[in-house]
Amino acid sequence: MINFHYARANDVTDAVRQIGGDANAKFVAGGTNLIDLMKMDVERPTTVIDITRLPLKQIERTPDGGLRIGALVRNTDLAYHPLVEERYPVLASAIMAGASQQLRNMASTGGNLLQRTRCAYFYDTATPCNKRKPGSGCSAIDGQNRMHAILGGSDACIATHPSDMCVALAVLEARVHVASESGDRVIPFADFHRLPGKTPQRDTDLDGGEIITAVELPPKGFAANYTYLKIRDRLSYAFALVSVAVGLELDGDTIKEGRFALGGVAHKPWRDQQAEAALRGRPAKAATFARAADALLRDAKGYAHNTFKIDLARRCIVRALTQAARGTPQSQSSKKIV
Amino acid sequence: MTNIRADASSPFHEPTRRETVAAGGVLPVAAGSSSGAAAVPSIRSTAPEMVSVSLTVNGRTHAVVLDTRTTLLDLLREKLDLTGTKKGCDQGQCGACTVIIDGRRVNSCLTFAVMYDGAQVTTIEGLANNGALHPLQQAFIEHDAFQCGYCTPGQICSAVGLIAEGRAKTADDIRELMSGNLCRCGAYTNIIAAIEEVMRRP
Ligand SMILES: Cc1cc2nc3c(=O)[nH]c(=O)nc-3n(C[C@H](O)[C@H](O)[C@H](O)COP(=O)(O)OP(=O)(O)OC[C@H]3O[C@@H](n4cnc5c(N)ncnc54)[C@H](O)[C@@H]3O)c2cc1C
Ligand code: SF4
Ligand code: FES
Ligand code: FES
Fold first, then answer.
1. A7, A80, A236 member nearest B20 (Cβ)
2. Closest B-chain CA to A52
3. Is residue A300 part of a domain?
4. How many angstroms separate the alpha carbon of residue A136 from the centre of ligand 2?
5. Does the Cβ of A229 fall within 6 Å of ligand 2?
6. Cβ B197 under 6 angstroms from ligand 3
7. Inter-chain touch B180–A22, beta carbons under 8 Å
8. Which member of A87, A241, B130, B190 lies 3.0 to 4.6 Å from B145 by CB, making a disulfide possible if both were Cys?
9. Sheet holding A67-70, edge to edge
């Protein structure tokens, strides 16, 4: 790790002033991703701005009946918040499916959105990686790519976004509130994370001078028919091979609205309008779910070690939609998949 | 002093000593030395930045001067001689370094100690009460919940946190909520039994 200057921000204005003036500065919140990457020499900030004392730790109701989550709310506090458990259980479930309790106790809402890929080459400074060093090449495309993307990848990068929480936020159509010296703006969740394209070094739409202040949830929480199903190499404390978050609104056996997003398969939580259109107005049964899965995976592309993910994703989608329709969401404690 | 920035001309904000103090009172004491010499540190320096930090560990307050890069884990082990907390992976992947900060279990390897200025830290050394083992320490012995013992301080601190959280109701819950603590010896069955026994005590 290189030496760095440690600074603290007192309020949001102070934080954006400090980051706006220093292209080599980074915020630290929970530190669970940044400190790891600094130890690996992947992140090399010369100034680290500690934002943990900023007053962004509240979870508040919004006038429209939604919820506003401060960027510094810890992952456990969010998952265990009574309003989240009751009205947005898909979010609580997705958070509890990620990392470990110690890490969730540290990790912040903003930091979770901005965590970087777990691609092993990204972590290994001895290998080429376009995300870490633009123009150096992608070691994964012809290398070990078992954990990598099957959707939305590019010739430059096939990394996946590792967050579980973000998969639920995609289904909930959260909005990301950000601030900078030039003002505030709100980014719809679907536009927050980017596809790699030719610039895989940019994970998100956030500018260097911006801070996330809050994540806002619209009123609709799909509390009756939801699930978060995560398939990984061990039962806990491992990143997803494939995960699926679902929110359904049913009218009897008919799907009024169906949303589902996939984790572990792309550079961002993956939703597909065509696939969701295949659910709308149809009976909530396996044949419908299979059609939606096929629609979502129509352009899926496997590499040497991850082609299995295409079939795995298909099965996970059908299973997750079934769980949600039956009102029997995946338990994150007993790992039995029903 | 040389500039470690790749682009020396890039605009950046160099805080003055006054700003740093105003920003929360963490005072860089001197670049490149822990002697407290009056030099105002420069972020251009290739030397480590030293900061004064005060935190309470197991009820005792320690005021120390540290390189900003020092993790709480390294502070405990290397400076405060509290070697009960273990370093396994140093990357958040094993739980051996678990301690309790302000009532929450966390991985001390993924913290900068300076971020926790003013915090209350409890480590495995702070659990016994006047020589009497903490109920979880006793239960780990009675249930034979370890072999080599390397993961044990982290397991026990994590279990203290788990019981304080009050979320675990079943053995499945314990298993899941303890998944951040790996045991290479595979003592899991007995670890769960020890925790469950203490958890179920009235
Ligand atoms: C061993 C291990 C296993 C894990 N397993 C999982 C898993 O299974 N599923 C999962 O989802 N996650 C997993 N994680 C990742 C974990 O969820 C993230 O590390 C965590 O959410 C990051 O949050 P943080 O607050 O610690 O971020 P930090 O490390 O503090 O910050 C991360 C990045 O965000 C920036 N940042 C932070 N807050 C803001 C803000 N408000 N505005 C602007 N920029 C900001 C920082 O500058 C930094 O670049 C795992 C992590 C580890 C170490
Ligand atoms: S997949 Fe992306 S992150 Fe991984 S080596 Fe290729 S460019 Fe780097
Ligand atoms: S040493 Fe901290 S988790 Fe392994
Ligand atoms: S007892 Fe040896 S690692 Fe757990």
1. A7
2. B115
3. yes
4. 10
5. no
6. no
7. no
8. B190
9. A59-61, A67-70, A211-217, A175-180, A183-188
Query: Which residues span the domain enclosing A248?
Result: 225-325
Inform me whether the C-beta atom of residue B103 falls under 8 Å from chain A C-beta atoms.
no
Instruction: Record the tokens describing residue B130, joined without a space.
Output: 């006047």
Answer whether residue B188 shows pLDDT above 90: yes
Count Cβ atoms below 10 Å from residue B143 Cβ, excluding itself. Answer: 19
d(Cα B115, Cα B26) in Å, to the nearest integer? 9
pLDDT profile of chain A (338 residues), mean per 10: 96 97 96 98 97 98 98 98 98 98 98 98 98 98 98 98 98 98 97 98 97 98 98 97 98 98 98 98 98 98 98 98 98 94
pTM of the model: 0.93
B84 pocket-lining for ligand 3 (C-beta < 6 Å): no
Size of interface A-B (CB pairs under 8 A): 144
Q: Contact A322/A225 with Cβ under 8 angstroms?
A: no
Q: Within a domain: residue A243? A: yes
Give residue limits of the domains in chain B: 50-200
Instruction: List CB contacts (< 8 A) between A102 and chain B.
Output: 92, 95, 98, 105-107, 158, 161, 180
- Say whether B69 and A102 touch across the interface (CB within 8 A): no
Q: How far is A114 from chain B (nearest CA, A)?
A: 16
Assess whether pLDDT exceeds 70 at residue B38.
no
Provide ipTM, 2 decimals.
0.96
Residue A282 lies in a domain: yes
What's the pLDDT score for residue A245? 99
| Inter-chain touch A31–B28, beta carbons under 8 Å | no
